[in-house]
Write a structure and sequence with these properties.
Blueprint: E1 49-54, H1 69-76, H2 91-94, E2 97-102, H3 110-126, E3 130-135, H4 141-148, E4 154-159, H5 180-186, E5 190-200, H6 208-216, E6 219-222, H7 223-229, H8 231-242, E7 247-252, H9 274-282, E8 289-295, H10 306-324
Parallel strand pairs: 1-2, 1-3, 3-8, 4-5, 4-7, 5-6, 7-8
Helix pairs in contact: 1-10, 3-4, 4-5, 9-10
Length: 333
């Protein structure tokens, strides 16, 4: 049975504010209209799932802007309601979910930002909180994995147009949005034989990233294979690869076709439809998920917020599969 989340003297209410109570255009925006709780507040001990912004794009090599993603995603997340339209799940009743604010970052120093993000997520995971993160460029996944995968290498299901397995850019620069998962594999935070990448496409520099990934045992499913096999078959294989071991999910918004989601730094035509993306995420249900992220929403390339609306809708889908995981912490009743 879901635990009682009604407010007491020591436990705050974790239910989102209804649009029937406060208009969606009113109030201070938080993710999905949830309460904001700082890591230093006593109420943090009651949080099961924490939604975190990582407003940083210091790893971007071409079109910057994802540093503004969390703020636009919060604003568009006022459109999220309580119930999943297909399963009927009410994740905010099943788990205590809160907006934990933004991870500290340093826009002037990559290494300092990586250290700050890692420390923030170490504090979060030490409290047993499952993180759902909003980037930021894709390099933010590396320090998150560094914190979550410190005890043992994780499996990962990764939706993206790009592998992000490159070794370096510009003559040896090893930390960019194109290198996070290579670093995470090399440093032992990801088990490459339990990593699945789905939706890979687009022109390439030289193919070195794919060759290296295959040599390590990464399962790379290009968009053409996905189209031939379909959602159910591809996700059945992905689920079999990660099994019941701790697994992370990373969703790059550029895995979706830019006809739907133009607000991203490295768009590639021929991607998922939004409907396919929803079905893919729903097929994660039942896995042992330790966290997830949605990255690379870049508001300067879609000021209207359409891309961010897709992003937060997928974050709600991710939240539902995280909430369904029996390993997700429950605070005492």
């Amino acid at each position: 049975m879901p635990h009682d989340t009604r407010q007491t003297d020591t436990t705050p209410s974790f239910e989102p504010v209804s649009g029937f109570v406060l208009p969606r255009f009113a109030g201070i925006p938080t993710f999905m209209r949830l309460p904001f709780i700082d890591l230093d507040e006593a109420a943090i001990d009651h949080v099961d799932i924490g939604i975190v912004g990582v407003p940083w794009d210091g790893g971007t090599t071409n079109r910057p802007g994802p540093r503004h993603g969390p703020r636009q995603l919060r604003d568009l997340s006022t459109m999220v309601r309580r119930l999943h339209p297909v399963t009927g799940m009410a994740p905010f009743s099943l788990r205590n979910v809160a907006d934990l604010g933004d991870s500290p970052v340093n826009p002037a120093d990559i290494q300092d930002s990586l250290a700050r993000i890692t420390e923030f997520y170490r504090r979060l995971t030490a409290k047993g909180i499952t993180p759902l993160s909003a980037g930021g460029d894709h390099l933010v996944s590396y320090p998150i994995l560094k914190a979550l995968g410190a005890a043992q290498p994780l499996g990962m299901i990764h939706f993206d147009a790009h592998t992000d397995l490159y070794d370096s850019y510009f003559g040896g620069f090893r930390y960019t949005h194109g290198t996070p998962f290579r670093r995470a594999i090399e440093d032992g935070y990801l088990d490459p034989k339990r990593v699945v990448q789905i939706g890979i496409r687009g022109t390439m520099y030289d193919g070195e990233d794919i060759e290296w990934g295959l040599q390590q045992g990464v399962r790379i499913i290009r968009i053409e294979e996905f189209e031939d096999r379909g959602v159910d078959d591809v996700m059945a294989e992905a689920r079999a690869i990660v099994g019941d071991t701790p697994t992370y999910v990373s969703f790059d918004i550029d895995s979706i076709d830019p006809a739907f989601a133009p607000g991203t730094g490295t768009p590639e035509i021929g991607g998922f439809t939004t409907r396919e993306a929803q079905r893919l995420v729903r097929k994660l249900s039942g896995l042992n998920l330790v966290g997830a992220d949605l990255v690379e929403v870049s508001p300067p390339f879609d000021p209207s917020g359409g891309t961010a609306l897709i992003g937060v809708t997928l974050m709600f889908e991710l939240l539902c599969v995280l909430a369904a995981n029996p390993q997700t912490k429950r605070p005492p009743v």
